[in-house]
Design goal:
Purple Acid Phosphatase, chain A, domain 2; hydrolase activity; 239 residues; alpha/beta; 5-stranded mixed beta sheet
Length: 239
């Protein structure tokens, strides 16, 4: 038997990540997996990456992390173009500690791990494209096509900020939702617990409240765009 905590799309929201850690403080996990987008859109990048590294979380990079890596290596990017978004990227890159920068630069775009005789693959978007959005209502034919692209029977993904567990062609597709940036009008953090007992694969999803006021005060302190205060309060994507 294995019990694994699934995270994704933390987006530097350490107060939400810390709330999840507190919620599960009495639970023993065999591993913690994170499907990327650990950075950008909140002012706690160093705390977030330190927690991931300290807790030996098996992580990959997402699209926001990839752009931060570009900035750290002297490159730039075209998208996003909106000023308030670009501010969050440049602020993050400029405020990373050397240790945090080294950590994010060390991560890969995908991971494959063996747990209880199951092959588990971590992707940010999908096995085909790190920027692909998968939802519960995505065409089953698309899931079927994706199931043939990697040698795993459990595919973990993020990016869409939407929690789901679907089984197609005996392949499990699981998205734990977003820890740190919510789009469904519920500001609570999302995560999941994956339990594997022999051939049985099950997932339990959780929504966990976190101290939003701590986020608001930090955004104000660092003079970051006001729109993010509204987004975290409402649990919506406003830009």
């Amino acid at each position: 038997m294995a019990k694994i905590l699934l995270l994704s799309d933390i987006h530097a929201n350490f107060p939400a990540l810390e709330a999840i850690a507190l919620f599960f403080s009495g639970t023993r996990f065999d591993a913690i997996f994170n499907c990327g987008d650990s950075l950008v859109y909140a002012p706690f990048p160093n705390e977030t990456l330190d927690w991931l590294e300290t807790n030996d979380v098996q992580s990959i990079v997402g699209n926001t992390d990839w752009k931060i890596r570009k900035l750290l290596t002297g490159k730039t990017f075209k998208k996003p173009r909106k000023t308030e978004k670009r501010i969050m990227y440049t602020w993050t890159a400029e405020h990373l500690t050397p240790a945090a920068a080294k950590y994010i630069l060390s991560l890969k775009r995908t991971r494959q791990l063996t747990v209880e005789n199951h092959e588990i693959c971590l992707f940010h978007g999908s096995p085909d494209n790190p920027n692909e959005f998968l939802f519960p209502e995505t065409d089953p034919a698309r899931f079927s096509a994706l199931s043939k692209l990697c040698p795993c029977d459990i595919i973990l993904c993020g990016h869409s900020h939407t929690a789901f567990h679907k089984r197609v062609n005996n392949i499990h597709f699981i998205n734990p939702g977003s820890v740190g940036r919510m789009f469904d009008s519920n500001p609570a953090a999302s995560c999941a617990v994956l339990t594997i007992i022999g051939e049985t694969v099950s997932t339990r999803f959780h929504r966990i409240s976190w101290p939003i006021e701590q986020m608001i005060q930090a955004l104000k302190k660092h003079k970051l765009p006001d729109i993010y205060q509204s987004m975290y309060t409402l649990g919506k994507k406003l830009n």
